């Protein structure tokens, strides 16, 4: 059976230096305040839901009866992505250099499909991705990383029966640790140490959750080009 490479999209296929996470944080904050919450309460709940549920949106659905598709249009859908990111030829080459007889390449994102597809299109990578695992905002109680269910669904959709054949890179340490705990074989934490990004509406220094490789077999990389080395067996 061939292997499957799963790539997180946001803050993995583009750098945190793009500032998208800050813009996303602002849009989500505005969404909270549009529900009638005060600034402080909005910030606190935004962070709480992100931490507890992996996505602020899930808390909004559970406790505020928010329509996820409306949320997606007003948050991810309203981001000026075209102004913030652009294709990187070296990243395109990286994906082209994967030996497709050995591994297929999938996106694995907590975003909804329109945002994921838009990012891949802007980055000029859409034709190099074999399939997309996304959060289906239309489904009640949809799963997201780091729920084990999300990873199980990913294997099913990508038709992978042996998790040891999975490759996965994500900028969120919690997400890669969750994959490792489920036996995913080759897992990398993309960690742009020194940069900042916004998570759950709060500015966070990247690398503050950096752990040593040895702990659970997760490799820490600061540049996606390092995948050529740590995953050499799936490159041409
Ligand atoms: Mg990410």
From TrEMBL:
Any one GO molecular function term: nucleotidase activity
GO BP annotations, alphabetical order: nucleotide catabolic process; pyrimidine nucleobase metabolic process
Domain of life assignment: Eukaryota
Record-given protein name: Pyrimidine 5-nucleotidase
């Amino acid at each position: 059976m061939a292997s499957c490479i799963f790539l997180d999209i946001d803050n993995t296929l583009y750098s945190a230096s793009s500032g998208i996470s800050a813009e996303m944080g602002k849009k989500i904050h505005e969404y909270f305040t549009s529900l009638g919450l005060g600034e402080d309460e909005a910030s606190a709940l935004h962070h709480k839901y992100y931490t507890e549920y992996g996505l602020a949106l899930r808390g909004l659905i559970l406790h505020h009866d928010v329509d996820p598709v409306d949320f997606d249009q007003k948050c991810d859908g309203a981001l000026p992505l075209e102004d913030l990111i652009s294709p990187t030829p070296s990243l395109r080459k990286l994906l082209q250099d994967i030996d497709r007889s050995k591994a297929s390449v999938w996106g694995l994102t907590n975003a909804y499909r329109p945002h994921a597809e838009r990012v891949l299109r802007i980055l000029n990578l859409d034709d190099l991705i074999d399939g997309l695992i996304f959060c289906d905002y239309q489904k009640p109680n949809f799963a997201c990383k780091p729920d084990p269910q999300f990873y199980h669904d990913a294997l099913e959709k990508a038709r992978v029966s042996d998790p040891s054949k999975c490759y996965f890179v994500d900028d969120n340490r919690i997400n890669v640790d969750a994959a490792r705990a489920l036996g995913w074989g080759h897992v990398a934490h993309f960690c742009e140490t020194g940069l900042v990004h916004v998570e759950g509406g709060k500015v966070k220094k990247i690398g503050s959750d950096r752990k040593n490789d040895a702990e659970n077999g997760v490799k820490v990389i600061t540049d996606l080009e390092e995948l050529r080395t740590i995953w050499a067996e799936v490159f041409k």
